[in-house]
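Work Package 3 (structural annotation) set out to generate three-dimensional models for the target panel prioritized at the project kickoff. During this period the team completed the workflow that converts sequence records into discrete structure tokens, so that structures can be stored uniformly alongside our sequence database. As a representative example, we reproduce one entry of 153 residues exactly as it appears in the project archive.
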Amino acid sequence: MKKLTIVLANLLILGLSSCEKAAEFQLENASYTSSFTFGTKSMVPIANSKNLDVLVEGKGSYSFSGEGTFVDRLVLGTDKGAATHTMEFTDAKGDKIYSTLSTQIGATSITGTGKFTGGTGRYSKISGDCTNAGPLIDAQGNGSWKETGKVTF
């Protein structure tokens, strides 16, 4: 009986030492790119300010997630061209990525920065940041932008 206990203990120790710890993240501080196109759905003046509440919807992809759709709500300062955004991206499987963006509208382009703030499903632990750039929005409220950055999830 004592021999059996020792053999089982050794097997247990060998088995535990051969198990590898599962990676906490699928990607860790990995470079990514993205590309998005959008259409403006609404633009409403915010009372007692020089700002607009703007809603845009579109489609695009992150290099780590594939194609998806997004909704972006932003407050646009009409006097200085600065905007703050909250964006929700939904991938083809229904998992969501939440992010915030700050952009500046210049004479010929839009530039800014962004940060992942959370998500659902496989993106529940997402973090990272980016820079973004795109051309100006056309007269119909359509536009596009690209991002490059680092991501962990």
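The mean pLDDT is 87.
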